[in-house]
Design goal:
The protein is 29% helix and 0% strand. The protein is built from three helices and no strands. The termini are far apart.
């Protein structure tokens, strides 16, 4: 962390490099989202209420739970 955010004088840097990769990842995700889905398998890593299934909204947000 120090090598990335602190200069040789010990001060925090006041600049940053923009990512050249992240905009492409975001674009690809938005284009491919309609074609992506879940592979449930044995279900051990699936959280029925807290995972997004067919929309960006969690299933538990659709149903009011006490």
């Amino acid at each position: 962390m120090q090598a990335k955010f602190i200069n040789k004088a010990g001060d925090f840097i006041r600049y940053h490099k923009k990512s050249t990769i992240w905009p492409g990842i975001r674009l690809a995700a938005s284009i491919n989202r309609p074609y992506m889905g879940w592979l449930v398998g044995n279900g051990t890593t699936i959280n029925f209420w807290r995972d997004t299934w067919t929309t960006e909204i969690l299933l538990r947000e659709y149903i009011e739970m006490p």
